[in-house]
C-alpha cells in the first residue's frame, strides 16, 4: 500500500496493479491494499480492460 500512496502523492491517478496468482492469499492482500489506498485518496479504480 505504501507504493500506491507514494504514486498518489506524486499526482498519479491511474495506477495499474499486478496481484499475482488468483488463489494465493498474498495476491488478495495486495489487491485489498491497492483498493484501500485508492479509496482513501478518493480515486475510483479503473477496472476496464
From TrEMBL:
The keyword Ligase does not apply. InterPro entries: LacI/GalR-like_sensor, Peripla_BP_I. This is LacI family transcriptional regulator. One of its GO terms (molecular function) is DNA binding. It holds the Pfam family Peripla_BP_3. The lineage of its organism: Bacteria, Bacillati, Actinomycetota, Actinomycetes, Streptosporangiales. It comes from the Bacteria. Keywords: DNA-binding, Transcription, Transcription regulation. The keyword Transferase does not apply. Residues 4-45 form the Transcriptional regulator LacI/GalR-like sensor domain.
Amino acid at each position: 500500500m505504501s507504493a500506491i500512496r507514494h504514486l498518489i502523492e506524486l499526482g498519479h491517478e491511474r495506477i495499474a496493479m499486478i496481484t499475482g496468482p488468483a488463489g494465493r492469499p498474498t495476491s488478495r492482500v495486495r489487491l485489498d491494499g491497492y483498493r484501500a489506498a485508492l479509496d482513501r485518496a478518493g480515486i475510483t479504480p479503473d477496472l476496464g480492460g
